[in-house]
Amino acid sequence: MAKIQVMSDLLANKIAAGEVVERPASVVKELVENALDAGATEIDIELQQGGLELIRISDNGSGIEPNDVPTAFERHATSKIRDDKDLFRIATLGFRGEALPSISAVSRVEIKTRTEDSAAGTFLRIEGGKVLDTGVTAAKKGTELIVRDLFFNTPARLKYLKSIQTELGHTTDYIERMALARPDVAFRFFHNDRMLVQTSGDGKLLHAVAAVYGREIVKQMVAVEWQNYDYRITGLTGYPELNRANRSHCTFFVNGRYIRSYQLFNAVQAAYHTRLPINRYPVCVLHLELDPSLVDVNVHPTKLEVRFSEEKDVFASMQAAIQSALQTETFIPKALPSI
Ligand code: ADP
Ligand code: MG
Fold first, then answer.
1. Do residues 199 and 212 lie in contact, with contact meaning Cβ atoms separated by under 8 Å?
2. 218 to each of 36, 210, 214, how far by Cα in Å?
3. Which of 18, 66, 78, 82 has its CA 20 to 30 A from that of 1?
4. What are the two backbone dihedrals, phi and then psi, of residue 231, each rounded to the nearest 5 degrees?
5. In order of start, what are the domains of the chain with their CATH numbers?
6. Which ligand is nearest to the CA of 105?
7. Which ligand is closest to the CA of 142, given by its number?
8. First vs last Cα of the chain: how many Å apart?
């Protein structure tokens, strides 16, 4: 027998899962991104025991055609790109066709899905990469995925997971960021049957920020609304009195994508100038929109940094946007309707 052999799909998926699925939060991320790519406007996320026992995501998106359901769990199977030309105009969050095969390689998955046009829904159960059962079922339009016993067949991975609280924290951070990134989508997030996050999906960032940070915080913030030829900056930033002991209370989205950026944070900080006490930092949620050619979004999905081609302009714009917001007298509380 030859020494070199092509590995089975089952084994390949298990290895790929090591890269795609690190912890419950990465499963949630992949499945929420699939729901958003399917055009969902309502997404429910439910965890039991930090997601170690169960992760359930349901959406009201397009659903999957009956014949496509088993294919969706195959490696490199995607409806999002067809040829290499598509690679340079990706408009979806996913495109690699790796999430479903990877997740189902290391857990017990149940999917229920129905498209607008099909009379009945489809279900499929798959465990450790092996399909157990599939057929017709009653289902509402959209998709529901249940992931149980994550890493049940990869004990080394399972051991690496942290406490329920730590794992829950990772997922909560992610859901809160998505809620702020997509005020047009109604998110509901439950842990052990307790609701932790709920947004209305009415498209107003103000309401999403109030839902995530609380109304009291929002009352201490002003709206940011600034634009020039190249850049548009919108969001909320806190009055100097609303300050924090570390830098982690400013959230930035570039063209709708969450990023980490010292540059942007420093620009915000510079706008506050001496209005903040020493060693205290602002609170903000800001969306920056610009022509995609002016920003290099690292194509690796887990990389959160971006590079701007006109760094100085971006810095100056952000500083100007915050400065002008802090000068306005229109305080948010007056504009804050009942939420
Ligand atoms: P990718 O997102 O990279 O295409 P995935 O493995 O995450 O790969 O999903 C495979 C395919 O299954 C997707 O391309 C999509 O067609 C379908 N799919 C997955 N989740 C959903 C969902 N929630 N709603 C509709 N279709 C979905
Ligand atoms: Mg995907």
1. yes
2. 26, 6, 7
3. 18
4. -130, 145
5. 9-198 (3.30.565.10), 220-330 (3.30.230.10)
6. 1
7. 1
8. 69
pLDDT at 156: 86
- Which residues are CB-contacts of 254 (< 8 A; sequence separation ≥ 6)? 261, 288, 289, 290, 295, 297, 306
Mean pLDDT (the chain, rounded):
90
Question: Of all protein residues, whose CA lies closest to atom 23 belonging to ligand 1?
Answer: 35
**Residue 79 in contact with ligand 1 by CB distance below 6 A:** yes
Quote the ligand 1 centre to 102 CA distance (angstroms): 12
Q: Please tell me the number of the ligand nearest to residue 99's CA.
A: 1
Q: What are phi and psi of 85, to 5 degrees?
A: -60, -40
- Summarize pLDDT for 103-133 with one digit per residue, the tens: 999 999 999 999 999 999 999 999 999 999 9
Buried b (16+ CB within 10 A) or exposed e, 126-164: bbbbeeeeeeeeebebbbbbbbbbbbebbeebeeebeeb
Mutate to test the pocket of ligand 1, among 28, 29, 78 (most ligand atoms within 8 A of CB): 78
Q: Is the separation of the CB atoms in 236 and 206 below 8 Å? A: yes
pTM metric for this prediction: 0.89
Residue type, 225: E
